[in-house]
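Risk register update: the risk of archive-format incompatibility is retired. Evidence:
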Amino acid sequence: MKEKNILSIDCGTQSLRAMIFSAKGELMAKTQRHYDTCISPHPGWAEQEPMLYWESLCSATLELKAKNPDFFKKVAGVGVTTQRNSVINIDAHGDPLRPAILWLDQRKASPTFGKNTLLNAVINAMLKGTDMDKKVADIKSQGKCNWIMENQPDIWEKTHKYLLISGFLNHRLTGNYIDSTASQIGHLPFNYKTLKWSGKYGLSRAFFPIENSKLPSLVKPGETVGKITEKASIETGLPKGLPVVACGSDKGCETVGAGVLDCKSVSLSFGTTATIQTTSKLYFEPLPFMPPYPASIPDRYNPEIEIFRGYWMITWFKNEFAHKEVVEAIKRDVPAEEILNSHLQNTSPGSMGLVVQPYWGPGLDQPFAKGAMIGFGDIHKKAHVYRAVIEGLAYGLREGLEKIEHKGKFRARFAVVSGGASQSDEICRITADIFNLPMARGKTHETSGLGAAIITAKGLGLYSTFEEAVAQMVSIEEKYYPRPENVQLYDQLYNKVYKKMYRQLQPLYLEIQKITGYPE
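Archived output:
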């Protein structure tokens, strides 16, 4: 077993990473391909050329092979994890028909689209006049498939398969239209409770009326998708016949890579989208009409709350306010975030009374929300704003934890942090203080890739259970414990200020939306 390695492909929003992990979870080698996040031909649109993902994969694996031949030749299998809710239409030859529509995309189908079916008519009649009427209409209008059917019917007619990026890459590697149940996160006719495609009269089928013939076959995480074809072997450098194992979404694999296999712990993802999720054997919805996502462990669920723009706000702050820090980072040849850490070290908990509500993008249960900073005074400097942003994100994630715990009837004992911003010790310490929970950070910050490697190792039979694979492959690098002197202050700010902000400001958000038209 020690001689066998795993190749993980992690296709994210801003880059693709090809990583070789040992059977003990050690990151042996990595290559990365950066690309533009998206193309925006119209305001609010977010698209990308699908072949960019495949070409990045091929380029990354070829470089990995050239630079690490000894590690590469010991690769026993491949696992693919990708960004969620980004879809690709392909024709009968497997070629893309149009650019991929990404999860960031904000276009919407007409509110009247799809109302002509009997099932939709029944649903609309049942919900008419209720609080859920608008929410359901909004869910349907967000369906990327609905927009394509309505605005590009010729494309939809030519569509042989409608795939997530994971399904697209799996097909390019194996020739099979097979994807993992744990990757089906998006506006799709997927039954999140049964972990299968929805039946003819299912709610998600009414919301997203995609023909079954256009959908891939599904297998559970850890099952084989197929084997590397001769054509894929030539393009990627991978041996023909190498098995490709079904994994899951990037966030789901991240949770596995964090070692979160039950509700005793939670996984915090400090990424572009900040999320908090756990792993549950029971199905429960953390928010109305917000099902738990399929976990990357078979027949389990990942209840999740997300902050849409999340730790992208660090990028926002860096671009808008931290030009000096960026220049200094370039001179010192270090990430700008390392310079920004000094702002956290040189300011006190509570940011001298500045509190941020981090809704730079509206939440699922707060469709009219906008971001807010309150408590400004002439004492506040740039460093206080940065700290308040970090504290606000932690408040938002704590609120998400409370919602998940309430619905799931459990109490988490500790949290595991991952994602780019988790590399900051100061951000981890602040979060531990605000949650009043011990926090752990893994040895590698490539947690999604590690999760895919764990699932692939189990699928290849290197371990008999997922629990055994996690125990052998996940290593904790650092632990952070709440500091009592900070916990009390943060607890008061959270309960007496932060939790009241949305309710107090919501009427103003609605007025802003009416007057300016934003958010739409």
